[in-house]
Amino acid sequence: MDHLAADRQILKRCITGEKKAREEFVIRFSNPIYQCIQFTLKAKHIPFSRQDLEDLHNTVFLNLFNKRCNKLRQYKGKNGCSVFSWIRLITVRTVIDHLRKAGRDVIARPKEEFNFDNLPGLIHDGYDPLARMEKADQKDLLLKGIESLRPRDRLFLQLHCLRGVSIQKVAEMLKLSENNAYSLKHRAIDRLKTKIAGHLKNLQ
């Protein structure tokens, strides 16, 4: 039996409530969870002690086994997601939630290289759990910014930038010339940048 199949088998046995399976599960994933916690804290530039690691490590396993292993039951294995990838995602979420409750600033700030011409890229989920969390934060800022725009700008960005409708088709839908549609695009993105900057300032 390969590692992927073995991990899924342990997970299934945990869900059925087998005590020995839970012990095997902790042994199997204890070190990877420690490493994931350290990586996440370092990536967020958060100082930590050995006790912090142990507390978060224990919290992760409590979350995994809580409510009859509800978190483990949510694992579906879609798109090639391994049990380990799923556990890493839960671990990162646990660390981020802990930092937020402690009042830490863990929101991923859009940088200068934030590509407003490729907004759908923020919606796509990768397999890296920390990247997923950062994209979730950026997606939230993006959608809040779009929702605060005037209706025409909002409709344009939703159609062209998020849904991928061609600018020619959007121009036809909004009864604009193609040149005016491009102008509208640039103005809408400029306003979106201003809105997001305002949201970030309010969070500071």
The radius of gyration over CA amounts to 22 Å
Question: Kindly state the mean pLDDT as a whole number?
Answer: 80
**SS field, number of helical segments:** 9
Determine the CATH topology of the largest domain: Rna Polymerase Sigma Factor, Chain: A
How far from one another are the termini? 51 Å
Q: How many strands appear in the DSSP assignment?
A: 0
Strand fraction equals: under 5%
CATH architecture of the largest domain: Orthogonal Bundle
Structural class: mainly alpha
Q: Give the SSE string.
A: HHHHHHHHH
CATH class of the largest domain: Mainly Alpha
Overall 3D form:
elongated
Major sheet, described briefly?
none
Total domains, how many?
A: 2
Low-confidence stretches: 107-114, 122-127
The CATH homologous superfamily of the largest domain:
RNA polymerase sigma factor, region 2, helix turn helix motif
Roughly what percent helix?
over 70%
Report on the architecture of this protein.
The protein has 204 residues and is mainly α. The chain folds into 2 domains: 3-101, RNA polymerase sigma factor, region 2, helix turn helix motif (Rna Polymerase Sigma Factor, Chain: A); 116-203, Arc Repressor Mutant, subunit A (Orthogonal Bundle). 73% of the residues lie in helices and 0% in strands. It has helices at 3-15, 19-43, 50-73, 83-101, 120-123, 129-147, 151-162, 167-173, 178-203. Helix 2 crosses helix 4, helix 6 (129-147) crosses helix 9 and helix 8 (167-173) crosses helix 9. The longest helix is centred in the C-terminal third of the chain and has 26 residues, at 178-203. Residues 107-114 and 122-127 have low confidence and may be disordered.
